[in-house]
Fold:
Amino acid sequence: MITVALLGNPNVGKTTLFNYLTGSNQYVGNWPGVTIEKKEGYIGDRVKIVDLPGIYALDTFSNEEKISKEFLEKGNVDVIVNIVDASSLNRNLYLTLQLKQFKKPIILVLNMMDVAKAKGIKIDFEKLAKKLGVTVVPISASKGIGIENVKKLLESGNFFRPTNENDYHYIDDERENYRFIEEVLSEVIVKESVESTTITEKIDSIVLNRFLAYPLFLLILYLIFMFTFNWVGQPLSDAMDEYIISGIVNLLENLLQNSSPWFSSLIIDGIVGGVGSVIVFLPVVMTLFLGITFLEDSGYMARAAFIMDKIMRKIGLSGKAFIPFIIGFGCSVPAIMSARTLESEKDRKLTALLVPLMSCNARLPVYALFAAIFFPGNESTVTFSLYILGVAIAIIIGLLFKNTIFRKDEEPFIIELPEYKIPELRNLMINTCEKGKGFLKKAGTIIFAMSVMVWLLSNFNFNGFTDMENSFLANFGSTIASVFKPMGYGTWQSAVALLTGLMAKEVVVSTMGVVYGLDLYNILSQQFTPLAAYSFLVFVLLYTPCISVIATMRKEFGNRMMAFSVFYQLLLAWIVSFVVYNVGSFIIG
Amino acid sequence: MSLCDLKPGQCGYIQSISGNKKLVKRLLALGCIEGTPVKVKLYAPLGDPIIINIRGFDLAIRKKDAMNIQLREA
Structure:
């Protein structure tokens, strides 16, 4: 087995090449300690390809570069495949020169030959290979041209292997390197000048126009949001919930008719109920990522970051972080996952911590129930105020975190605005499926365990199987109920509702349905004052969203971040809810 | 004169880069070397950041950072 390291600048078609070479034979994980995706793939059983993050250089202090460098030094790399944009060799070859320091054979894949041709660029491949001491393969990855040659070359091992020190021409100085590149290129490139306004410039003049930029941005977000939560994703999720999950429940109910009630309850209420409530997110996650990958691949994402940067900077984030926040209004799970696309570790973490404060879909049923009972006629005002409160708190917490735990110096914001292109279907599909697979595998395991645990706690006490009112959970509920007393809702029922709401926020409503019984409306209106009801809703808005978010947090950032996010949100919810109730009581008198 | 003093559409030649070590290193790696021609393409709708073109590709950069790129008169 030979190990191939795949490297290149961002936006040069590295992912496309990787997908073509390995097909579906790839595995996605994380590099240890950082939230950067690690992708490995295989060609047959003789070639293993490791897709390294897109970088411009190896020594400008980013995590992506650190990982790449470490892998090149310690990963037993046999050959480096360096993919470059043939229409922009000047900058691309800088990384190539830096790669020489590792003294490995390099295959220089010249991608986008079609684009280069259209720009009137002619390249003497043989001379380029000789000058740089590498093997050169021209391809057009988006059209699938030349990929076979790369594959064959890797399988045969028939590439140029430098033998003497001179073949490893490497200088540790930017100026020298660029001088060398310019010298080489002047000999191997003939460029017929066809300078004119490019399509990209035309699109940019509209998309980045002073007056049109924001309306267009909002429109695009709106379309993605509708696509995910109204047109495709959510309907699919609902259908899945209605037909598949309930079908399974029916089937199991029949199968388990004769088994003991505790066992069928464990399987149906515990496992299928818990895991099922998460699996139904799958279509939402996948459609959303389809949309995001589309934006990313088309080149628009960089523009969105560009126009939002000034605004997002105020809370210590860069422009790109705006997207996850919008998604957060739909569901925090894909929102946290989409933070992956952000440049710096700090941005990814801060975004993931703030995103759950955006009021997600699942909280709406709770608002709806309480608003209908306590604020008839003002339902939408009350609901809207909660959404605004979430955003306001996110800004405040953002400022707080920016000036405390994330007080690292601001990363310089330099992003390339790639040329626009039409995303390739194949890439979109592979990417979306990978996201879906990852979601199921990782989130599934922890949710399975938690579901069983919650079921145990809500159905057992020291005397064995029991109804919910006498369970550990109810006991625990009355113990922690006093915590909620200062906010006006210190009953064990609301405590239990909030606790089970950790499974999913909608569960707050269904739990109340179970513990209060059928006369929910009347009982609730006696249990809460309107102020206490609002303060309860504030708590629902701000406290740790749900087990899926916790699982996603753990998967993306590890145990410490998960624990921190859970506790800070609980604390935050308590404080704000407390303030709302007590200031409210004071005003009302 | 710094890169910030150029209006959209204007060009200049890079003379030197100062400031944050990370920033300098990154810009150098991207080819912002002495003598390289650079053009300011446009400003963001809110005036910051700006888009510059160098060695045939577009970069978005904040004004605060662009101020560290000194130009010599074209």
Remarks:
- The first helix of chain A runs from residue 14 to 22.
- The radius of gyration of chain A is 28 Å.
